[in-house]
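Fill-in record for F-box/kelch-repeat protein.
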Amino acid sequence: MCVSKNRVNCCYVLDPNALSLNWKLLGPIPPQCIRREGMSFEALGRKLFLFWAVAAMKKPQMKFIAMMLVQGNGRKWPECLQEALGDKIYVTGGLGLSSVALSSWDIYDCRLNEWSSHQDPSLIPDIVKSFAFEGKVYTVHSTWVDRQYARAYDPSSRSWEDLSCQMTSCCHGPTVVSCGILHMLDETHGTRLMTWEKENEEWVLLGRLAQGLTNPPCQLVAVGSCVYVVGHNLSTVVVNTEINGAWPEGVLVGSSLAPKHGSDVSVMSCKAVTI
């Protein structure tokens, strides 16, 4: 999902199995999404979901391309966060019609096509980033004194655990899970692909990406063992993480797609969906 310099939302699709890799415009997206601010984006199986807040913050709506409509509790995007895990999408954070939204989960079950909600007294509403990993929802928090910490939520037991402070470094760029391994793109000094080493609880360098190929800020998406780094104007670098090949200077070996000509779009989100 992208947004143009004129604040117009649009979707592009890339078939990783095509003989010629090329981003193609996917459309039209629902007309009420064209110029809506704070769009969010998720994928479950063969379904593509778009999130936004309705006028006056009454009830957030969630729609996918086939125009199915479901409703959850009142939250305001883009401050809220959602993650797909299994057959469900977990939504938390944001601003709602009451303080209930700050200490609760809204859960959409794709199979049942319905929302459920439950209170969570351990839910801390200072989440700045979230992602799904190993059957849990990982969250990074930032306090008013600018201190960061990380936690993990287990939906099966509805319990939280504290994580190593090293995990908070993932705020330096987007994250993605490829073949069960967590990766992060560090955009603080160039672009470096990092891997989470669970045994030592730290981020380790997989390799740097060649300057000029990426066009930050970027988003990540994984297809099998390949991580796609998608930047401004859909410039794309593909890295096979199983090969882990790099030049002596530490530059990762991979293929790339040039920026899309005639476009001026920033990538808001990138997801893999089965068609």
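KEY FINDING: Residues 44-163 form a domain with the Neuraminidase fold (CATH 2.120.10.80).
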